[in-house]
């Protein structure tokens, strides 16, 4: 149940990014669900391989190339899917940063840690 809720929250984050940025287009909530699923799979499978392959460049740029890598993956998913479109590379870089921030905020609010106070 938590996985499905997390998936829905990421789709909502993608819809918010499309609302805030004119360079990102999502054609409905179903497309956002599919795009969130594909983004999650790409981040789970492809990103670790590309991170290792581009490690020297990432070290040379003091970690800034990692933002470019995130943007490239976001842009690639936008080109692969029919209902999800990113209009340019720099829109993809900005959208990936915003998507990450919104998704982190949403999951942090919904799945907030349970604080337990014990008496001494």
From TrEMBL:
Looking at the keywords, is Ligase present?
A: no
Superkingdom of the source species: Bacteria
Keywords, sorted A to Z: Membrane, Transmembrane, Transmembrane helix
Q: Can the keyword Transmembrane helix be found in this entry's annotation?
A: yes
Q: Which sequence ranges are marked TM in the entry?
A: 7-26, 32-50, 57-77, 89-111
- Indicate what this protein is called per its UniProt record: Membrane protein
Source organism: Limnobacter litoralis
The upper taxonomy is: Bacteria, Pseudomonadati, Pseudomonadota, Betaproteobacteria, Burkholderiales
